[in-house]
Amino acid sequence: MSKNLASKAVSGLKWGSAATVANAVMQIGYTSAMARLLAPEAFGLVAISSVILRFGSYFANMGLTKALIQKEELEPQHIRAAFTASFLLGLLFTGITWLAAPLTARFFENPDVAPIVRVMALSFLVNGISITSLSLLEREMRFKAISIIEIISYVISYLGVGIVLAYLDFGVWSLIYATLLQATLTAVGTYAIVRHSVLLQFGWAPYKPLFSYGSRMSVISFLEFLSQEFGTILIGRVLGSYKLGLYNRAYMLVNLPMYMLTRTFTKVVFPSFSKIQNDIKKLGRIYLSSITLLAALVIPACLGISVAAPELVRIILGAQWGESVPVLQVLSLAIALSFITMFAGIVCDAKAVLNVKIVLNIVFILVISGLFYLLREYGLVGFAFAVLIGEMVRMAMYQRVMLSVLQLPYRQQLSIYLPGVINGLLVALGIYLVSTLLRGADAPVLLVFAAQILTGAVLLLALTLLFPHKLLRAELQMVLNKMGLNSNTDSTSGRLIHKYKSYILKEA
């Protein structure tokens, strides 16, 4: 990786991490407030409507976002073609969704779905206008600008308008209006920075390379959407909006922090991987390094959430959401695998190995469909176990793909999970012991939850930084170097960093 690319990647990680922390704190507060102001049915209705909107979004965008980032040489006519296609497809799908809204309400046997879907359909048009400028910012790795836009739009839309409208008894519409407002503010902010041409492109030549890659990416994204939202569709259809609301909030409680933890990595990784797509050895090294670091954080965090689920649900959502606790405990394990496996998918995207990825996702959908059917009698927990088993199968399939694409042996691929698994088990054990002690003493739930967070954080930091597994040692040094923390012994901080580097690199 060139110095310039590495510098941009590190800058992106720094700004993305800062934005992630800010968004995580804000979303926890927003979720807690809205869970107390709105009933589970409101979240269930939004979950159903969101599935419909996401269903259309993969065709409305046609993978042009990834195509703009992945293409090595990008000309002005390609940008105009991407904007033209995104704008017209967004307009088309806004109209189609508006007309089809009554059909979706009939499918879910809930008349309240139709008006919500119709209003949310406007997001197709807004996203169609903004997606080109956002993609160009990501391609140029201008994550500082993206982070600032995300934070400002979130504060105004959700913490400002969303909570106020919910307090004023707007019900489910407070969620809808907040979502549309954020999309609009993001569109305005990104275009204000990029200011690309908005002249429509009518010649076919610039479209061909974008749609060649983008159309396959659109199919893959749609298949991944089906695999992720199959449970939402079935629960909404079979068990109703109340049960779906319980499942959706449980899924959110673990998915949101993991998304916040990994979103910075994924945003930086795809353009970085794309720029070195033809260097198999370097790409393989960076892939293994990324998974090692990510697994060391994600697995302990998810196992900790699983143990602390009763208190987490009680504090964040409230006592009325107790039915979601066992669902959250199982989903915590499934989502850990999902986020780690995601990096193998990014490698396939960067190298344009898309046909194999299409087949893999079709197989995964068939597997998870069969599991949902077999475990349907166990209700929401059965659906959660189906997701967990399905993610284990997907991980195995992706390892076969990485053996072919990056020539990485199975043993090498499996070994990089070891630091995360060991740390995760120790963190979970520590939280379990503290929880058992405090629960047995009838300690207040806030005290138990605070002790769980403190125990998990201390153990994870100690295991990662003070007693790192040998596979983590070199990765930690690499992170310190890339962040500009060099061992300049002329200063006190430099001497401390030098001593720490020597410590983590010593023989186990």
Q: Would you kindly provide a written description of the structure presented here, covering whatever features stand out?
A:
- The protein is mainly alpha-helical.
- It has three domains: 1-214, no CATH class; 239-450, no CATH class; 468-508, no CATH class.
- It contains 20 helices and no strands.
- Helix 1 (3-37) packs antiparallel against helix 10 and helix 6 (122-139) packs across helix 8.
- The protein is globular, with a radius of gyration of 23 Å.
- The relative contact order is 0.10.
Can you summarize this structure?
The chain is mainly α.
- What's the number of structural domains? 3
User: Roughly how many Å apart are the termini?
Assistant: 29 Å
> Percent of residues in beta strands?
under 5%
**Tally of strands:** 0
- Could you list the spans in which at least 5 consecutive residues all have pLDDT below 50? none
Using only CA atoms, what is the Rg?
A: 23 Å
Mean pLDDT: 80
Q: How large is the count of helical segments?
A: 20
Overall geometry: globular
Going by helix content, strand content and strand pairing, the class is: mainly alpha
Helix content: over 70%
H/E topology pattern: HHHHHHHHHHHHHHHHHHHH
Largest sheet: none
